[in-house]
Design a protein that fits this description.
The chain is an alpha/beta fold. It is about 40% helix and about 15% strand. The protein binds 1,3-dihydroxyacetonephosphate.
Length: about 250
């Protein structure tokens, strides 16, 4: 039985006062039946670590450099994230693919850099609306995942995968539980074929998950939790989503 995981992706939101309030509320609402994490802007990682240390809540980053160290102005290495106690680093979010030109190959190298330092990559895959309408959904997500599987080779089973249809992110338009389940099943089969451990791996759904649709999504057999954007910024909403994961 896979344990559910709910991860808040704060994106570029928050400030010290609001973060403190949100994290205090998440701590106060424990225990959860699922694993719960927040992926915060890098500048807030230290404070988040200090606040959550000693609790069962986890934290992580929203990106990581593919490089170990060196002259890469503005980048943050996996070793730095590990030193900050990060359990996770999101890699290949569609916003980074779209606005920063991240390729499948780069995403794969970032996932490898994270794993090499003991930081679990949350690898995002997902199709655009045009790709879905063109019947390309399966081909697109399989291509995106395949790049990471080949880069990680024998460690591929260590990653977390997040299926985030681009057309459902921040739009209020959620994939139906059936649409999401269909893609999750494809991804799990691909992971199983590549690693032999697909049944144990965590595949999250992301894209307009809210308190009122989380339970149905999480009830699907291959949906192991969520990667939550907007709703992770409001304590009551995020707590309700975490409680929907049992
Ligand atoms: P929303 O939940 O705001 O749609 O964002 C989803 C997402 O991109 C999480 O990474």
């Amino acid at each position: 039985m896979r344990r559910k995981l709910v991860v808040g992706n704060w994106k570029m939101h928050g400030n010290r006062a609001a973060n403190a309030e949100l994290l205090a509320a998440l701590l106060a609402a424990r225990p959860y039946m699922a694993d719960v994490a927040v992926c915060v802007p890098a500048l807030f990682l230290h404070e988040t670590a200090a606040t959550l240390a000693g609790s069962d809540l986890r934290w992580g980053a929203q990106d990581v450099s593919e490089h170990e160290q060196g002259a890469y102005t503005g980048e943050i290495s996996a070793a730095m994230l590990a030193e900050c106690g990060c359990r996770y680093a999101i890699v290949g979010h569609s916003e980074r693919r779209a606005y920063h030109g991240e390729s499948d190959a780069l995403v794969a190298r970032k996932a490898q850099a994270a794993l090499a330092r003991g930081v679990t990559p949350i690898v995002c895959v997902g199709e655009t609306l045009a790709e879905r309408d063109g019947g390309q959904t399966e081909a697109v997500v399989k291509r995106q995942l395949s790049a990471v599987i080949h880069q990680l080779t024998h460690c591929a089973a260590e990653m977390v995968v997040a299926y985030e249809p681009v057309w459902a992110i921040g739009t209020g338009r959620t994939a139906t539980p059936e649409q999401a389940q269909q893609v999750h099943a494809v991804l799990r089969a691909q992971l199983q074929a590549a690693t032999g451990r697909g049944a144990t791996m965590t595949i999250l759904y992301g894209g307009s998950v809210k308190a009122d649709n989380a339970a149905t999504l999480f009830a699907q057999p291959d949906i192991d939790g969520g990667l939550i954007g907007g709703a992770s910024l409001k304590a009551a909403d995020f707590i309700a989503i975490c409680r929907a994961a049992t």
